[in-house]
From TrEMBL:
Phylogenetic placement of the source organism: Bacteria, Bacillati, Actinomycetota, Actinomycetes, Micrococcales
Protein name stated in the entry: OmpR/PhoB-type domain-containing protein
Coiled coil location: none
CDD domains with a match to the protein in the record: trans_reg_C (cd00383)
Claim: GTP-binding is one of the keywords in the record: no
Any Pfam family matching the protein: Trans_reg_C
Gene3D superfamilies per UniProt: Winged helix-like DNA-binding domain superfamily/Winged helix DNA-binding domain
Segments of the chain annotated as binding DNA: 46-140
Organism: Brevibacterium metallidurans
Length: 140
C-alpha cells in the first residue's frame, strides 16, 4: 500500500497525484475526536489544538493530557503530530517511519511500534488506535 502524502511547506500534509488503491479500512468509532465539540479558538490560542482530552501547542511544542503537561521526546512528538494532523487517516508503519526519520530511512519499521507503545504509556493507551493490518490512527 503506497501512501504518497508528504510533509510539505509550512508543515501541512499534502498529496501528489498517485495511484489509487482499493483498501478497506474499518470506519472510525462514533466517539471520534473530530466528533467532539472543540473549544473556541480564543480559549486555546492560535497554536493550540484540542483533540478530546489532549491539547497540542505547536508554538511551544508541548502536549497536555487532562490539563497536565506530558513530556515527550522529539521523536514521540513528531509521531504524535503526524497522527493528529488528520485524525481520521490511518498511517502505515512505513509512512510514519518515512515522515519521522526521513527519506533515507532503512531501518526496521517495527521501531515505530516501540514509539507508539511509549506514546500510549505517556498520553494514554486509548489515544492511539491500531488498525490491524494497516497501521495506526489517532483516536483521542
Amino acid at each position: 500500500m503506497a501512501d504518497d502524502a508528504y510533509l510539505g511547506a509550512g508543515g501541512k500534509f499534502t498529496s501528489s497525484a498517485g495511484t489509487a488503491t482499493d483498501v478497506s479500512i474499518p470506519p472510525r468509532p462514533e466517539s471520534s475526536p473530530t466528533a467532539e465539540a472543540a473549544a473556541p479558538a480564543s480559549e486555546l490560542g492560535p497554536f493550540r489544538t484540542r483533540l478530546g482530552s489532549l491539547v497540542l501547542d505547536t508554538g511551544r511544542l508541548t502536549v497536555e493530557v487532562d490539563g497536565e503537561e506530558v513530556h515527550l521526546t522529539p521523536t514521540e512528538l513528531r509521531v504524535l503530530l503526524l497522527l493528529t494532523e488528520q485524525p481520521e487517516h490511518v498511517y502505515s508503519r512505513e509512512k510514519i517511519a518515512f515522515t519521522v526519520w526521513g527519506y533515507e530511512w532503512a531501518g526496521d519499521s517495527r521501531v515505530v511500534d516501540v514509539h507508539i507503545q511509549r506514546l500510549r504509556k505517556k498520553i494514554g493507551a486509548n489515544m492511539i488506535e491500531t488498525v490491524r493490518g494497516f497501521g495506526y490512527r489517532f483516536a483521542g
